[in-house]
Design a protein that fits this description.
267 residues, Rossmann fold, 8 helices
């Protein structure tokens, strides 16, 4: 909702991308249900839907560009081997520690801070080397990593403004680092509070203690407008979807979004 309102209030385009890189884990029919839910709540996207599963060539080309500059190395470490590490320790920087096993492609990260100004959360900085270390761009199972894919897609789609959940705030420095290496433009970022379950765990489809009801979209739009600081009038609870969105676009002010990383939601 925040990204949609921000785009519409500024006369921008709101693009829809299905980030479906991990095909083995994709639930059959999930994409169609997502699109159906968006339509039921009155979201209208611009242009064609982009599916990451169709864009492997573009990610490979970017990876090859980085490889040609010796910025990539092959890593044989498994998740189990690294589970006690707070960040990647550089085990395979000089070559895979274990031969004859599948390897991941990691980006060599140099010391130093990446800093940016978030439209909601304010100034944020991170030393990627200390916080994360050399990070994966292509997994051991040959699936391209989220960090690489979104950077390439954002650039090719001409994305200028990104509004997303604060759970991705600490991912942003890695994406900016990649943008710099690939000479790509940096979008403007805004990270809204993440909605949580009543017990403060992240709102999840597997839990669903707080349910999404497509039979009463206006009521749930009303409640979410309020979470974003818009103070909707009670009349919107029974108004049509078009009236709800028209009112919210007119009232939208990203400065009113709470400067918090998470926000509890209850039935």
């Amino acid at each position: 909702m925040a990204s949609y309102l921000d785009a519409r209030a500024h006369g921008g385009r709101w693009l829809l991308r299905l980030e479906d890189l991990d095909r083995p884990r994709e639930v059959a029919g999930a994409a169609d249900r997502i699109l159906g839910t968006l339509e039921a709540f009155g979201f209208e996207w611009d242009g064609e839907i982009v599916r990451q599963c169709d864009r492997a060539y573009h990610y490979l080309r970017a990876l090859q560009t980085l490889q040609a500059r010796n910025l990539i190395f092959e890593c044989s470490c498994s998740r189990l081997q690294l589970e006690e590490e707070t960040c990647y320790p550089g085990t395979c920087r000089s070559g895979p520690a274990t031969l004859g096993v599948p390897t991941a492609a990691r980006l060599r990260v140099e010391p130093g801070f990446v800093l940016f100004s978030d439209r909601i959360q304010g100034t944020y900085r991170q030393d990627i080397g200390r916080a994360v270390g050399d990070f994966i761009l292509k997994r051991r199972d040959q699936v391209f990593a989220y960090q690489l894919a979104v950077v390439i897609d954002d650039a090719e789609q001409g994305i200028t403004h990104i509004v997303r959940g604060a759970d991705l705030l600490d991912n942003t420095p890695r994406q900016i680092y990649l943008q710099q290496l690939l000479n790509l433009p940096r979008p403007t970022y805004a990270h809204v509070p993440v909605l949580t379950e009543p017990d403060d765990t992240k709102l999840a489809k597997s839990r669903r203690s707080v349910r999404l009801d497509i039979k009463s979209p206006a009521t749930q739009l009303f409640e979410t407008f309020a979470m974003l600081g818009l103070e909707p009038p009670s009349s919107l609870r029974t108004a049509g979807l078009g009236d709800n969105w028209a009112w919210a676009v007119e009232q939208w002010d990203i400065k009113r979004v709470p400067k918090r990383l998470h926000m509890r939601v209850t039935d």
